[in-house]
Amino acid sequence: MDYFRERTPYYEREGLAIVWPWMKNGTECMLAPVDMDKPHLRLTAAKAAQYHDTALVLYWSLAYKAGCKTFAQVGLTAQGLGRGLQKLGYPPLSLIIMLFFSNATVPVAGPNINMYHSASLSIPDGPPAIDMTMLNQWDSLRFYERFRLMPFSMNFKAIQEPGVWNDAFLSPMYTIYTSVLFAAVLVMLVFILIRFYRLQVNHEVPRDTRLAIMVLTFIYCTILLAHYIITNTTLVGRIVESVVMVLSTLSVELATWYWIARAKNIFSRTTRIIFFTCIAVHMVLLIVTFACNIGFIFTWTNEKRSAILTVLTTYVTPFVPFIGLVIFGSFAIWFGSCAYRVRHNSEACSRSLKLMFISILTTVTFLAATAKNVVTLWRSGRTDIISVSDVVALELASATTYAMRAFVCFMVIRLSCRSAKSSASIYPTIDSTPKPPEDTDWNKHAWQHADSAFNDSPGWPPANMARAPQFEYGADADKWRSLKADIRAPA
Fold first, then answer.
1. What's the CA gap between 118 and 102, in Å, rounded?
2. Does residue 236 lie in a domain region?
3. Per-residue pLDDT tens digits for 82-139
4. Is the full-model pTM beyond 0.85?
5. Sheet strands side by side (includes 93-99)
6. Which of 84, 325, 441, 486 fits as disulfide partner to 366, beta carbons 3.0 to 4.6 Å?
7. What CATH number did the domain enclosing 222 receive?
8. Of all helices (H) and strands (E), which one includes residue 332?
9. What is the pLDDT of residues 42-51, one digit of tens each?
10. 55, β-bridge pairs
11. 78: domain range?
């Protein structure tokens, strides 16, 4: 099978395959040098000259003992060996045949092995400099039982084959699905840029939490697009994935924090303090999770990890998304209850349902993250409960979760824009006051209209926000008082 998630051009190669020893007691990932004076090498070179290709057969277990950390590192040392063999008359080294020993029940060389990515900037990762084909653990065992580890040469013929992992991760359906997610996030990013540009031109850019929400969402969407392009099988890809994870949650929770701060009459003081506390604790745990992830990214698997880091990553961080699940699940229930209470008012009910829908979407993302962590923790150390389709499903769930959180932030911004437009389209009547100047500021319209059914507290709106003009309700003042009574009525 080919290198994971690498579209290797089709090839048919035929020539001489050799098993080459590693440096004895070496720790620098170096193959034994070519000894020009060995007679059998010259005899083999004469035989190999009739072919076009040379292949190198390597066992990963031996490469690891020799100090190799990544496949890219193996590719570089193989290049040096190939140049030495060419001086003896061998054809170019064009293929590495990598063999594995494993008791896993799915083919090795999938996304969860550690040889793809580096844990240090000084050690390369990514696809090796020479094409690499990987034998699964069963074929590797049969090969070993027949030929063992002694240096030898043999004729080979290799035909390019993607392998079971690439058949799944490079399939048309997988590619189309991730491309749709990429395009959707790109559209959201363009919308945010256009919205910010309009606010900047009109000198209406907010100077409070709303600006932070817009900027953070823009940064998140930008890095998310990079995450869809860069696979997590490299050091950079793993760092980008961790940054996406933390920004996706911070963006949503910052918007939630703003909701709670503005909804003084929806939640009691005690309820708001509880929600603020839960969000703050969740943010702190999220930062701890991010720090643990970065620590793991820059730690080799054979290095001893601290007891604190092990405890945090085993018993704390896998359940951090569950707190978000509780928070946003409570929001969904609350806004659903509000929608029921004002069900006789179509506009108020519609806005409550929109807030409930946004909360449900966010809840689903945390539910998916919680499920993935539980499954990953449960299968840790086991080899019989995961399959290729399971891994693909988990990867797609993560990609979808990140896109849904971007969509939640996008909906908050879009809802604000719609509310601003609707509030400006009010026409005066014969007994109303003159129409005020159009105001498109977020601060005065976005959440005022999103939560118009709930704005009845003595301190709402704040001093720096003008109350809604009387002509907006006109002769419907009785209807407005009735609406407030519906909100206050018990469920």
1. 21
2. yes
3. 999 998 889 999 999 999 998 888 888 888 788 999 999 999 999 999 999 999 999 9
4. no
5. 132-134, 93-99, 53-59, 12-19, 153-159
6. 325
7. 1.20.1070
8. helix 320-341
9. 888 888 888 8
10. 17, 95
11. 12-163
Calpha distance 28→15 (Å, rounded): 29
Tokens of 139: 């074929």
Same domain membership, residue 52 and residue 191? no
Using the structure block, give the residue that is written with the tokens 């031109």.
201
Q: Report how far Cα 174 is from the mean position of its chain's Cα atoms.
A: 15
Same domain, 149 and 25: yes
Residues with Cβ within 8 Å of 129's Cβ and at least 6 positions away in sequence, in order, are 72, 75, 76, 78, 79
For 411-461, give the DSSP string. HHHHHHHHHHHHHH-----TTSPPPPPP---HHHHHHHHHTTTT--STT-S
Classify residue 227 as exposed, middle or buried by CB count within 10 Å of its CB (0-12, 13-18, 19+).
buried
* Calpha distance 200→223 (Å, rounded): 23
- At 60-77, the pLDDT tens digits run 999 999 999 999 999 999
Q: Are 129 and 216 contained in the same domain?
A: no
Residues 137 and 257 in one domain: no
